Amino acid sequence: MNVVLRWLPVVAWSAVILIASDDAFSAANSGAWFRGLFGRDLPHVLHVAIRKLAHVVEYGILGALAFRAARIDFPRRAMAIALAVALLVSMIDEVHQSTIASRTGTGWDVLLDLIGAGIALWFLRRNQQSA
Questions:
Q1: With bands split at pLDDT 50, 70 and 90, how would you rate the model's confidence at 73?
Q2: Is 6:85 a contact under the CB 8 Å cutoff?
Q3: From the CB of residue 15, how many other CB atoms can be counted at a distance below 10 Å?
Q4: Helix (H) or strand (E) holding 5
């Protein structure tokens, strides 16, 4: 598999994350989705928890994809590269969100994104060691 095909999923998933960084995925809009799905507003704490869990999941996927690509080209540094990719995309995402009136970019979300990537990498490393 050539390098472009290895990294294409990383680029594609990064694009999905960054596209979701606009007003359409703001808390107000996700609240409307939940209202449509459940027939009522979710309690605020549950709404926030779901949105924060989305950070963990989406960056977990990004970390896993980046590790999968990096382990062939840079086997000894694959974990560090995967975390660096997650950090870069997260920082771009949060800076972009800070320019949108209905969104807020925060360093806490960057940390949460890195935790998501780190969890995925921990599972991958654990499974790799037991194989």
A1: confident
A2: no
A3: 11
A4: helix 3-19
